[in-house]
Amino acid sequence: MKPYRVNRRLHAQLGFWIAAPLILVTVTGILLLVKKQWGFVQPPEQRGTVAAEPVGLDVLLVALQAEPGLDVDGWHSIDRLDVRPGKGLVKAQLEDGREVQLDLATGRILQVAVRRTDLIEALHDGSFFGGDVAKLGVFLPIACAVLLLIGSGLWMWWYPIQVRRRVARLEVGRAPPP
Questions:
Q1: Phi-psi region for residue 6, left (φ > 0), alpha (ψ -120 to 50) or beta?
Q2: Which of 8, 51, 100, 108 stands 20 to 30 A from 70 (CA)?
Q3: Treating both helix axes as pointing N-terminal to C-terminal, what angle do 3-33 and 140-173 enclose, rounded to 10 degrees?
Q4: In what order do the strands lie in the sheet with 89-94?
Q5: How far apart are CA 162 and CA 155, in angstroms?
Q6: Is the CB of residue 129 less than 8 Å from the CB of residue 142?
Q7: Are 104 and 90 in contact (CB under 8 A)?
Q8: Please, are residues 55 and 107 in contact by the beta-carbon 8 Å criterion?
Q9: CB within 8 Å of 77: residues ≥ 6 apart
Q10: Tens digit of each residue's pLDDT (9 = 90 or more) over 88-141
Q11: pLDDT of residue 178
């Protein structure tokens, strides 16, 4: 079988098997690109009060515990804190996926919203499907297959051009019969 046909078959088979994961990575990548512009993915940042002396962590925890519906009963309910002193803001990301934005100077809650960025990132890199096993065992080979598809696609584009040029050169070299 000719190499060009083998390449076409490989390209078609590989493209079929990686289509769904590639669509997932592409869609989640687009969502991550627009996360700051679209409040559905990541809540917009509020502005707090910039102060020389921010409140302590204990004040922030009390404010979170006092808010009805948050069900914060201690530090174990909080996944992480993101402190933005220049904006006077603290983002508390709760274990249940919600984000609470607090004023750094007063400890007052500015906004409570669902943060979908972490879920979208986990889908994007494959860790949602089983941690490192899915990332390295499925998504890494798919990324390598995408590189192969790009290479074989470029070859399928270039090869006919090369053949046409070769044929044209041969035809120019032939002399018309006498």
A1: alpha
A2: 51
A3: 130
A4: 78-84, 89-94, 98-103, 109-114
A5: 10
A6: no
A7: yes
A8: yes
A9: 64, 71, 94, 95
A10: 999 999 998 899 999 999 999 999 999 999 999 999 988 888 888 888 888 888
A11: 65
Question: How far apart are alpha carbons 105 and 98 in whole angstroms?
Answer: 22
**Average pLDDT value for residue range 53-74:** 90
User: CA-CA distance, 86 to 164, in Å (whole number)?
Assistant: 62
Rounded Cα distance between 112 and 4, Å, is 57
The residue assigned the tokens 């512009």 is 37
Match 């969502």 to its residue by tokens: 31
List, as one string, the DSSP characters of 38-75: -TTTSPPPP-----SSPPPHHHHHHHHHHSTTS---SG
Distance in angstroms (rounded) separating the CA atoms of residues 29 and 117: 11
Cβ atoms of 53 and 123 closer than 8 Å: no
Decide the pairing of beta strands 89-94 and 109-114: unpaired
In tens, the pLDDT along 79-96 reads 999 999 989 999 999 998
| CA max distance for the chain | 102
Phi, psi torsion values for 106, nearest 5 degrees = -115, -20
At 16 the three-state DSSP class reads helix
